[in-house]
Write a structure and sequence with these properties.
Blueprint: H1 2-44, E1 55-57, H2 58-64, E2 67-73, E3 76-83, E4 88-90, E5 93-96, E6 99-104, E7 109-113, E8 122-125, E9 132-137, E10 140-148, E11 153-162, E12 165-177, E13 183-185, E14 189-196, E15 201-210, E16 215-224, H3 227-239, H4 254-261, H5 276-282, E17 288-292, E18 295-299, E19 304-307, E20 314-320, H6 328-335, E21 341-343, E22 349-353, E23 357-363, E24 369-376
Antiparallel strand pairs: 1-7, 2-3, 3-6, 4-5, 5-8, 6-7, 9-10, 10-11, 11-12, 13-14, 14-15, 15-16, 17-18, 18-19, 19-20, 20-24, 21-22, 22-23, 23-24
């Protein structure tokens, strides 16, 4: 009788297991179907809108276009051409009524896009690839079209692919330097640079893209008037396209300080103790390296690492105050959530000591935090 009960229980358990497995399989199949349906629905939208647009064969465009690009936007791959039927070459310049043409990749037909004015003649310098170029922002690809307005600046038209056609994002309202390309920061932000030649002042403006409205949104702006600092940044930005001016992308809060207490610098994935060679290998585009009073260092736009010369381990890290845009008074309020804080004699620095590390905020005489430092005690 006992064996009979055991057998019945085993049969019931087996039945329950089959029900559970069947349920899991059903849910998985349902999720897979939903994903496939979403992909099919997205693909149901035409890759390129043809209605009301002039068409042209891509064979001619591939041979005769002044600019040609292969880009991805959403789930589609595209060929983008910049072409003028009446293009004229004069010495080192091309001029004509240029237009964008958009085609799904490998298609035999492209369609003219209405983002450049038909009546406007555009002039491009031979071999200058920085007059029209694509920029990736999130899932979107946008195109920058530069038109020189004086010896120093160009005004930029921006257009982006949206629902099968190129749409205007901005029409010349944004200006930037001729000799320094617009910065594309981590495929999330753009940064433009303007200069007032009469005062040697430079202006950095950082932009994000609202993908819903397809509009550029100003994120941050900084003005530099110090001549030495101006020279440093212009020289650095001319050196590598990967360099940019630090901008507000962090909030000094309890979460960031909690990480700092564990030896993880604010705004960095590398904890103190990481070998500096590992960081340089993973992040090869550093701006400067050398030796300061604090020791040997490697400087990036967004952070500076100090390390021990003997074992190459990072001992301290500093982030520029531009990333925080906060005051020493506000920083002190956050610091006090974690314990007693100390101030230096001039009142321009506050310290928070933990078991292994020291967190320091350093301000200028206007109370504005100019750097945040984490170091071993």
């Amino acid at each position: 009788m006992k064996k009979f009960y055991i057998t019945v229980c085993l049969l019931l358990l087996t039945a329950c297991s089959y029900d559970t497995i069947a349920s899991i399989k059903s849910e998985t199949l349902s999720e897979t179907k939903e994903a496939k349906d979403a992909a099919i629905e997205e693909k149901a939208e035409p890759a390129v809108i043809a209605e009301g647009k002039e068409k042209m064969d891509t064979v001619t465009l591939k041979e005769e276009s002044l600019f040609k690009f292969e880009v991805k936007d959403g789930s589609y791959d595209y060929n983008v051409f910049v072409y003028a039927k009446n293009a004229e070459k004069k010495d080192v310049f091309y001029s004509g009524h240029y237009a964008f043409y958009l085609a799904e990749k490998d298609s035999t037909v492209a369609y003219k896009q209405n983002v450049l004015k038909d009546e406007e003649i555009l002039t491009f310098k031979t071999g200058n690839d920085e007059q029209i170029y694509p920029l990736k922002l999130g899932k979107k690809t946008i195109f920058a079209v530069a038109e020189q307005i004086d010896q120093v600046h160009s005004q930029f038209l921006f257009a982006g692919i949206d629902n099968g056609e190129l749409k205007l994002i901005s029409n010349g309202e944004i200006e930037s330097l001729n000799d320094i390309t617009i910065r594309n920061i981590n495929q999330k932000y753009l940064q433009t640079i303007k200069r007032d030649s009469s005062s040697d002042t430079i202006y950095f403006t950082t932009w994000g893209l609202n993908e819903e409205t397809l509009k550029l949104v100003e994120q941050d702006q900084e003005t530099i008037t110090d001549e030495e600092k101006v020279d440093f940044w212009l020289e650095s930005l001319n050196e590598k396209n990967a360099f940019y001016y630090p901008f507000k992308d962090l909030e000094l809060n309890a979460d960031l300080l909690a990480k700092a207490k564990q030896g993880i610098p604010v705004g960095s994935p590398y904890p103190l103790g990481t070998n500096i060679q590992e960081i340089k290998k993973a992040e090869p585009y550093y701006m400067r390296e050398g030796v300061k009073e604090e020791g040997p260092y490697v400087m990036y736009p967004e952070i500076t690492y100090y390390y021990n010369a003997e074992d190459s381990k990072v001992t301290a890290a500093e982030i520029p105050g531009e990333r925080l845009r906060t005051s020493l008074t506000e920083a002190e309020k956050i610091f006090k959530q974690f314990g007693e804080t100390l101030k230096n004699e001039t009142g321009t620095s506050i310290y928070l000591n933990t078991e292994k590390y020291q967190i320091e905020a350093v301000a200028d005489h206007d109370d504005k935090v100019k750097l945040l430092r984490l170091k071993r005690r």
